[in-house]
Design brief:
Pectate Lyase C-like; 5 helices; mainly beta; about 475 residues; so0334 like fold; 13-stranded parallel β-sheet; about 10% helix; elongated; carbon-oxygen lyase activity, acting on polysaccharides
Length: about 475
Amino acid sequence: MKPYAFLSLVLVVQTLVCTTKTFAAIPQTKEKPRKYYVSVNGSDGNTGSISAPFQTINIALAHAKPGDQVLVRGGTYYQEVKFPRSGEPGKTISLQGYPGEKPIIDGSRIKVSGWLSLVTISNVSYVTIDGFDICNLSSSAVNTDPQGIAINGKGQHISVKNCHIYNIKSHATLEQGRSAHAILVIGSSPTPISHLLITGCTVNDTQTGTSENVTLAGNIEGFIFSHNLVYDTENIGVIVAGGDGINPRGAVESNYARNGVISDNVFHHNTMTRTPETWGPDRFGAISIYVCGGANTLIERNIVYESDRGIGLVSESNIYPTRTTTVRNNLVYNCYRAGIYMGDYLNYTIAGTKNCSILNNTLFQNNRVAGAFGEIEGELRLTEHCEGNVIKYNRVYAGPKDLLVHKYTLTGSQNIIDHNSYFSIGQPQWIWNSTNGSPITDFQTWKKTSGQDAHSSLKKVSSKFYSNLSRKWKRSLPSKI
C-alpha cells in the first residue's frame, strides 16, 4: 500500500470514531396513547380528561392521534360523527362506548338532505367504532338516503363492533326514490377498502326501500360480516355486490366486493310484508343474504327464517356474474319463497351465477306463498344462466305442497346436483326447465329427466317428524349472537 493511501485510511477511521463520539444517539421517548372522554354534560372547552370531558364527539376525534381512544359516556348525542384521520398499523384510533354505559348517536334532530349518515368513515384506515346505538334518522323527501354508518372511498383495517343500528327509515314512495341503509360500504377509489370487519352488531326496524340494510359494494377486497343479528327489516339483509350501479365510474376489473366471509349471523323477518302500503300485498322480494355480482365469498353457519327468501346467489348485472362463492352449513326455514336462489332474474340480465357451491345446507318448509308467476319457487331455485355450479350434500325438507328443486329455463350448463337428502311429508315434487309446468312426482323420473341426483336419496316422513325438527331448531336459536 502506498503511504498516502494508508494515511487516508487512518484519517477516515479517525473521523468515523470522532463522529460517533461527538453525535451519540439521544434516547427517544415514545408518546403514550391518550384517552379522551366525551359526556353530554361536558364542554368543548375542556381538556377531554375523564374529569373534564368534551361534549362533542367530533371535537374528541379531532384531538385523537394514532393509538388514542375516545371514550363516550352514556347518554344521547344529537350529532353527526366523522372520523377526520387514520390510525396506523398497531395504532388504531378507537371510538368506544364507555365500559358499562350506552352512548346513543341520535338523528331525530337532523334534517336529511341527499345522502346523509350519522357516522361517516371516509378515506381513512385503522379506525374502530365500538358499542354505540345509532338510530332515529329518517326522511320523507325525494331522493334522500338516510344512513346509520357510511364507509366509502378507500381504507383498510376498519372495524364496526357491537353497534345497534335501528329506526333508519325512508318514508318516501318508490316513485320518489325510497332508499336508506343501516350500513353502507362503497369502495369508490382505485385503492380498495380492505380488512373490513362488522361484528356483534344488531340491525332492526328499518325501511330501506329499494336498497339494503347492509351494503358491501364496489372496490372491496376482503371483509368479514359475522355474529350479527338482522331482523324486522323492509328489504335485503346484507348484500355483496358489484359497483356498476352504485359506483358507475369504478374500474371494471375491481369494482365489485370480493374475498369475504358472512358467518354465524341470524336473519329473520327481512320482508316486504312489513310495509304493504309501499310494496303491495303480494311482494316477497327481500333476500336475507344476497351476493349480487360479488365473488369469492364464503357464507356459512348462518340461520335465516321467516323472511321473503333465504340466500340468493343472483346477478342483477350484465357485467358481473355472481361467482366462486360457497354457501355451506346454513339453516334456512319457513321463508315465504325460495330457500336458496341462483341465477339471473328472468328476462332481466345475463351475467348469471357461475362456479358457486351449495354444500351441506338444511332447507326446511320454505315456499309458503306462490312466486311471481303463480309458481312454487322451490327449496332450491335455479333460474337463468347458471353455469358450473355444484349443489351437494344438502338436506331438503319440503312442505306438503313444496318443490324440492325447481330449474326454470333451458339456459345454463355443467351444473352438478347430487348426494342430497330429500324429505317430504306430502307428494315430492320437482320441476325441470319450466317456469310453471307440470311437476315431476317420481324420484326416478326426476333423475332421468334432469340427469342429476344419481346418488341422492328421498325419504317420506311424518308431520310429527317435521314438528320435532322445528321445535329443535327454535330451541337452538341463540339468545345472543
